[in-house]
């Protein structure tokens, strides 16, 4: 469980970018963070994984306080937080398998990492996860030979290799075509429940947020002004969050109609084949 309390972030002497955020995210729960450009979405994710130093407040992951951790304790905490990026952040000249194994860097010795002698258990787990997301056949291909959707799956598997207790995704679909975006959102949704992970997704695409997450949090100028179910995210919520700015990729009409459309979208879409992550889950227990 992720518990954020009174989180404030101020860059230098500027006005605070995050103004006292409170948020609790249970395991198994996929939360979309929406908001206009500059609302503070990325800053919030970066405070959680401590790429950015919070100015004040508390961020607890499964009861452990992340704010103020330093050195080895911070490294240990960070490896429990998987991150998926808009631009995938793969090393192009390395193979898919090598990129995936990079998710173990926080766990292996420097010698093992440099000589690429990862434990057999890591390699087996990498194959399991790659099979689960449908990229095992590319294990020995260079990362830059894959399509965008395949590359993002590599990014997801790399994050899962960390055995995360929390998964953060910063605009994971923004570089992908609509169909591939939907597949990645479905994948994140099913992995959250298979691995019992809280997942936070920064996303500009409100339609995708409504379809593929069970909770939407709306930020405006660093304050949380909406926190509710997709069905409750109506035109008023959209106006409050985007305040006259046109929301990307969606015009919200009657919420009921939107619900029906959402149901239809679900019905039309084949669910990601659940090839069972029981073993992986077991490993993580
Ligand atoms: N390193 C930094 N130094 C100073 N100001 C920053 C820094 N990073 C972000 N900001 C400012 O903080 C505010 C929030 O930025 P942030 O990137 O968190 O917003 P966002 O909601 O993720 O926007 P977008 O959707 O465009 O990515 C912006 O005004 C931005 O200019």
UniProtKB/TrEMBL annotation:
Subcellular location as annotated: Cell inner membrane
Positions of the UniProt region annotated as Disordered: 244-285
Keywords, in A-Z order: ATP-binding, Cell membrane, Membrane, Nucleotide-binding, Translocase, Transport
Membrane topology label: Peripheral membrane protein
InterPro entries noted in UniProt: AAA+_ATPase (IPR003593), ABC_transporter-like_ATP-bd (IPR003439), ABC_transporter-like_CS (IPR017871), ABC_transpr_PhnC (IPR012693), MetN_ABC_transporter-like (IPR050086), P-loop_NTPase (IPR027417)
Any one of the GO CC terms: plasma membrane
Lineage, broadest ranks: Bacteria, Pseudomonadati, Pseudomonadota, Gammaproteobacteria, Oceanospirillales
Biased composition (Basic and acidic residues): 261-285
GO molecular-function terms, A-Z: ABC-type phosphonate transporter activity; ATP binding; ATP hydrolysis activity
Organism the protein comes from: Halomonas urumqiensis
Domain ABC transporter: 2-246
Record's protein name: Phosphonate ABC transporter ATP-binding protein
